[in-house]
Amino acid sequence: MIYVTYGKMSKEGLNGLTAKPENRAEALGKMVDALGGKLIDYYFLLNGEIDFIIISAFPDDQNVNELSLIDALLVRGSGAIESITTLPALRAADAVPLFERAKALQEAATYSKPGD
């Protein structure tokens, strides 16, 4: 399964990258590999709201749960990251069955918005 992680660097993290410029993909890749995943790509946006996006693949949610815990303990704990979020991602073609299921549930009137 593919996961998208995004976050915001702290002032300390940005200062560290400026003081000692380096490609952080290598360090990140080692952590992802150690959890049984694969780093697909790593981007910096540096737009003030979202500073980085990581695309990774993991065989199951257990590995991602471990990654989330490690993010909290190691990455945020280091002071380099202000916030970080990991979400599962579906390729557009893989989402079609979910849309079809939602349509079937809608047609079966299993959900109505408040006030209906």
Structure description:
Helix content is 44%, strand content 26%. With 116 residues, it is α+β, with helices and mostly antiparallel strands. It has a single domain (2-107), classed as 2-Layer Sandwich (Alpha-Beta Plaits). The chain has a four-stranded antiparallel β-sheet. Strand 2 (38-44) and strand 3 (52-57) form a beta hairpin. It is elongated. The mean pLDDT is 87.
> Termini distance?
37 Å
| Strand line-up of the largest beta sheet | 2-3-1-4
**Hey, roughly how much beta strand do the residues contain?**
25-35%
What sequence of helices (H) and strands (E) makes up the elements?
EHHEEHEH
Q: Describe the biggest sheet?
A: 4 strands, antiparallel
CATH topology: Alpha-Beta Plaits
Which architecture would the CATH scheme give at its second level? 2-Layer Sandwich
Judging from the principal axes of the Cα atoms, what is the shape?
Answer: elongated
Helix amount: 40-55%
Mean pLDDT across all amino acids: 87
Tell me the total number of β-strands.
4
Assembly state of the chains shown: single chain
The CATH first-level class comes to Alpha Beta
What is the C-alpha radius of gyration, as a whole number of Å?
A: 18 Å
Unreliable spans are none
Structural class: alpha+beta
CATH homologous superfamily heading: Dimeric alpha+beta barrel
Give the count of structural domains. 1
Count up the helices. 4
